């Protein structure tokens, strides 16, 4: 993702082009011999942000910094870290910016709660509305005004 | 010379739009027919002028007129013709010109097909549409003029970003803009109705075709972009929850909600003020999307700082129009009394739930998109919100929507019977559970995504078919289906499409297989049921790039058998932009894609090869196509042609009552 090059001059086309990759992400020489460990490394990598890219995980990114991070994750796993410890190690070094999935701490609780709270609120409002419509009397005045009647006649003629 | 004419035409269009914005509005207020009737010719003239301006810019790109700064920065004489043309909108200035072109097109269409509207409403709709246009003309003329000349024209241009030199992406922006900007007409209708103080069934009927058209275009535009990302970016990702993608997804969700709530206005005269609000929000989110894309504020604060003038200008447009419309809404919405009465269990209520789910999910996308900005400015936390958040926070609402959809879409208007509908849907439910269970049993991993996705997808498709079947009546008269209104067919096709897309997404995400390794020429390796052989690697030259081309033969891994596919993955370098791209080679099949990518040469003479098996990948875009087709079918319903005022002597006699 090379925002610097790609971004400003290119049009809306860029809706997707932001994710431009050049060489490809994980290289064979990085991969661990133990498939289980490698699978864990891939999973962790998919949740860590490439710091110099736009919204791209280190697993997808071709940037050299992303490669360094991928190797670091694998190093920690080989050293015997659990998944959580490996992530914690990376966050300790690079800050929470590196997490693609924000933690539910502090004000971030607002972010996580926003959807469900909004949903319950909307559901409540919707239910009130529907109840009111169910209890309402049908509108008495169902007849057309003279103007509307004229337009209706006009339409029917065609 | 032609460029100067284009510039002059743009200025004239700006002036025409100012007239179209003000005179008819006064006319409608004072009930002066002469003043109101200015709107139509003005809308036509404005469209022709901006079309001439756009044609002039396109001419400059086609003829590679390197005295124009924009052409120098975004084109090259050796570029294929298709990309010279698409280069017209593959940049900021040109894309904004395309934006106003489409805005004027929709205004002109509303003028041409709006003969049926009450004169005051039509005058106001066109005036509001012109007001939006005025803002964007000013934006282009004062901050992003595409017609600037170079003092010293260079010999050749700097080329278009190679990633954009692709057929899928050549047409992605026009479709997306037709959708984005198409929502402007719904906005104009909403604001005009607020000024009139009147929303009735007829209003719902006028707004719906425009919403449908915009939604269809947005669907196609988003699908094209996503498909492009799939085959071009080299690992087959199709959606990244990037701010710029979300910017197009939020209006899509709102348009989908609007399209459904307008049905309730049209048929039942309820949900009026909510529908007006949705129309305002849908276009408001289009503007937010434009702001996000054009200012770059969310993707990079740095990009915004590079161009504060433009970003602030669009922000001002956004605030004035959305804010103004919402203020008007707050003042007037109370006057819109609902008329229709309906039970708690009814199609109306089901559509209320639909709207809640779509609006809330759009809200989730919105808050996730802007949260990094909010967190940094308000709490001083630099953080990221990426795909894992959206997958966790957005998906539940879509699952709920999928669960409820077949039930809701079959409920009767006014007062429905849930048990009756549920009885009809038992076969569909059994089928969906069986499919989900089967998949659960045979898949190797323990992921829930696959089985749940297959269950939901099957449930939606089977539900749509059940709906169709129920329309044959008690004696299963299939000929009744032929006489169903097109809108009903559209509904079923679009709902089927949603199911197919859900099947595709879950299939791809749950069962994708991947292999990355270093391979020498002549070597064979296997993934899943397939054996891949790297036959050769050659260097080739394209019109404006150099390529490394691999030749890969695919055969069955176990049984003896013929070749399944012969693939040529490429890695290109575009010398002018100094940028490499990958061109994956894909063997498209109904149930799976084979996706082969060639990477860098290794020290030992081998090549990095990546191969993927992507189950059901095509279903994602196939479903989008079905959704768009459903929209088009619905749009072609004769009731809208009549409502849209195409005065023709239609054979009214032979149409059965619903």
From TrEMBL, chain A:
It comes from the Bacteria. Residues 14-156 form the CcmH/CycL/Ccl2/NrfF N-terminal domain. The chain crosses the membrane at residues 110-130. GO terms for biological process: cytochrome complex assembly. Residues 1-25 form the signal peptide. Pfam families: CcmH (PF03918). One of its GO terms (cellular component) is plasma membrane. One of its GO terms (molecular function) is metal ion binding. The keyword DNA repair does not apply. Keywords: Cytochrome c-type biogenesis, Heme, Iron, Membrane, Metal-binding, Signal, Transmembrane, Transmembrane helix. Possible subunit of a heme lyase. PANTHER family: CYTOCHROME C-TYPE BIOGENESIS PROTEIN CCMH (PTHR47870). Belongs to the CcmH/CycL/Ccl2/NrfF family. This is Cytochrome c-type biogenesis protein. It comes from Sagittula salina.
TrEMBL record, chain B:
Residues 89-295 form the Cytochrome c assembly protein domain. GO terms for molecular function: heme binding; heme transmembrane transporter activity; lyase activity. The chain crosses the membrane at residues 6-26, 38-62, 96-113, 125-144, 175-195, 207-229, 249-265, 274-292, 312-331, 352-374, 394-413, 425-442, 448-469, 489-511, 616-635. Coiled coil: none annotated. InterPro entries: CcmF_C, Cyt_c_assembly, Cyt_c_biogenesis, Cyt_c_biogenesis_CcmF. GO terms for cellular component: plasma membrane. Belongs to the CcmF/CycK/Ccl1/NrfE/CcsA family. Keywords: Cell inner membrane, Cell membrane, Cytochrome c-type biogenesis, Lyase, Membrane, Transmembrane, Transmembrane helix. Residues 315-638 form the Cytochrome c-type biogenesis protein CcmF C-terminal domain. This is Heme lyase CcmF/NrfE family subunit. GO terms for biological process: cytochrome complex assembly. Pfam families: CcmF_C, Cytochrom_C_asm. It is found in: Cell inner membrane. The keyword Cell inner membrane applies. Required for the biogenesis of c-type cytochromes. Possible subunit of a heme lyase. It is a multi-pass membrane protein.
């Amino acid at each position: 993702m090379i925002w610097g090059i790609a971004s400003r001059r290119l049009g809306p086309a860029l809706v997707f082009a932001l994710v431009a990759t050049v060489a490809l992400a994980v290289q064979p020489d990085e991969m661990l011999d133990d498939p289980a460990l490698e699978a864990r490394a891939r999973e962790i990598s998919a949740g860590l942000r490439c710091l110099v890219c736009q919204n791209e995980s280190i697993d997808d990114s071709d940037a050299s910094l992303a490669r360094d991070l991928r190797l670091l994750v694998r190093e920690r796993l080989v050293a015997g870290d659990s998944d959580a410890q490996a992530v914690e190690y990376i966050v300790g070094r690079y800050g929470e910016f590196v997490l693609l999935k924000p933690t539910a701490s502090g004000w971030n609780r607002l972010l996580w709660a926003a959807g469900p709270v909004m949903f319950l609120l909307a559901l409540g409002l919707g239910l009130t509305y529907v109840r009111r419509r169910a209890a309402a009397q049908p509108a008495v005045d169902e007849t057309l005004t003279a103007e509307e009647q004229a337009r209706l006649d006009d339409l029917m003629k065609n | 010379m032609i460029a100067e004419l284009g510039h002059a035409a743009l200025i004239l269009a700006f002036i025409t739009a100012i007239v179209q914005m003000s005179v008819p509005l006064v006319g409608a207020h004072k009930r002066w027919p002469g003043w109101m009737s200015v709107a139509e010719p003005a809308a036509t003239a404005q469209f022709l002028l901006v079309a001439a301006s756009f044609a002039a810019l396109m001419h400059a790109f086609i003829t590679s007129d390197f005295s124009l700064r924009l052409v120098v920065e975004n084109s090259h004489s050796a570029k294929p013709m298709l990309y010279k043309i698409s280069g017209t909108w593959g940049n900021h200035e040109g894309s904004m010109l395309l934006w106003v072109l489409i805005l004027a097109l929709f205004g002109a269409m509303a003028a041409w097909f709006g003969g049926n509207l009450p004169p005051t409403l039509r005058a106001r709709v066109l005036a509001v549409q012109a007001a939006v246009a005025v803002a964007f003309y000013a934006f282009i003329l004062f901050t992003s003029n595409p017609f600037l000349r170079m003092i010293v024209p260079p010999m050749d241009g700097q080329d278009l970003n190679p990633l954009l030199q692709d057929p899928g992406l050549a047409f992605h922006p026009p479709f997306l803009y037709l959708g984005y900007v198409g929502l402007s007409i719904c906005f104009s209708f909403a604001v005009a109705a607020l000024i009139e103080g009147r929303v009735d069934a007829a209003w719902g009927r006028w707004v719906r075709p425009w919403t449908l058209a915009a939604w269809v275009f947005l669907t196609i535009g988003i699908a094209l972009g996503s498909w492009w990302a799939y085959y071009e970016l080299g690992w087959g990702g199709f959606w990244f929850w990037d701010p710029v993608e979300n910017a197009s997804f939020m209006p899509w969700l709102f348009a989908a909600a609007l399209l459904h709530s307008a049905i309730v206005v049209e048929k039942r005269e309820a949900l009026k003020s909510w529908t007006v609000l949705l129309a305002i929000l849908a276009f408001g989110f289009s503007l937010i999307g434009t702001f996000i894309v054009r200012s770059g504020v969310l993707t990079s604060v740095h990009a915004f700082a590079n161009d504060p003038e433009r970003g602030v200008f669009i922000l001002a447009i956004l605030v004035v129009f959305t804010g103004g419309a919402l203020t008007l809404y707050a003042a007037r919405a109370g006057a819109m009394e609902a008329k229709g009465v309906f039970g708690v269990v009814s199609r109306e209520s089901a559509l209320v739930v639909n709207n809640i789910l779509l609006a809330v999910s759009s809200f989730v996308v919105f808050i996730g998109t802007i949260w990094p900005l909010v967190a940094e400015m308000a709490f001083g936390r630099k953080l990221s919100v990426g795909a894992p958040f959206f997958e966790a926070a957005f998906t539940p609402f879509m699952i709920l929507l999928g669960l409820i959809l077949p039930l809701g879409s079959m409920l009767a208007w006014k007062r429905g019977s849930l048990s009756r509908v549920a009885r009809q849907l038992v076969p569909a439910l059994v089928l969906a559970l069986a499919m989900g269970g089967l998949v659960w049993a045979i898949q190797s991993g323990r992921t829930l995504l696959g089985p749940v996705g297959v269950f939901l997808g099957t449930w939606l498709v089977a539900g749509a078919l059940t709906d169709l079947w129920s329309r044959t009546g008690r004696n299963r008269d299939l000929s009744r289906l032929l006489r169903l209104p097109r809108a009903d067919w559209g509904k079923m096709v679009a709902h089927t499409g949603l199911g197919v897309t859900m099947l595709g997404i879950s299939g791809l995400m749950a069962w994708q297989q991947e292999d990355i390794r270093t391979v020498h020429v002549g070597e064979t390796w296997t993934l899943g049921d397939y054996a891949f052989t790297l036959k050769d690697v050659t260097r080739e030259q394209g019109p404006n790039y150099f390529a490394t081309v691999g030749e890969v033969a695919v055969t069955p891994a176990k049984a003896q058998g013929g070749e399944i596919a012969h693939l040529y993955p490429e890695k290109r370098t575009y010398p002018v932009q100094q940028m490499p791209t990958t061109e994956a080679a894909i063997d498209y099949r109904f149930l799976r894609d084979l996706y082969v990518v060639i990477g860098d040469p290794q020290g030992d003479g081998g090549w990095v090869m990546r191969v993927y098996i992507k189950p059901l990948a095509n279903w994602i875009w196939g479903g989008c196509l079905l959704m768009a087709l459903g929209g088009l079918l619905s749009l072609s319903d004769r009731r809208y042609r009549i409502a849209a005022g195409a005065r023709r002597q239609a054979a009214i006699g032979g149409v059965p009552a619903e």
